[in-house]
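During the reporting period the student researcher (J.K.) took over the structure-prediction task from the postdoctoral fellow and processed the backlog of single-chain submissions. One of the processed entries is reproduced below for the supervisory committee.
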Amino acid sequence: MSLLGPTKRPDWDEYFMDITSLIARRSTCLRRHVGALLVRDKRILATGYNGAPSGIEHCAAVGCMREKLNIPSGERHELCRGLHAEQNAIIQAALHGVSIKGATLYCTNLPCIICAKMIINSGIKQIISGDTYSDHLTAEMLAEAGIEITVLKE
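J.K. obtained the following structure tokens:
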């Protein structure tokens, strides 16, 4: 028993999703804050959040291109200054020479199709997400690649 009284210890998925939510708070996107965490053998390998690339002004400073062009969520991903959280986590692992083959991706939302293709080719084997994302092609391709998906709606 702790000094604060009895508390429920989070299981591993809750623990890593809590960390993923904290990572999302670093996002510089004006539309959606997303966090991603790569884990293997209960060890954190890399993290990422959505926002402009390193050294590039954040959307908070220059405005949101997608808002200006009235682009709906889930469409025309290439028309954005930012990288997705999943992309940043994969890039951080590559930058620092960390293999993510066989890893689990924890993410606040299910990935888009662009991220799904990167996930498949990077060797990630499982995705645990805090919420859904409506992209039917993503679901089809991840299933075809044999990547297990679990959505933990809060």
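The committee noted the following: The mean pLDDT is 91.
J.K. will present the remaining backlog at the next meeting.
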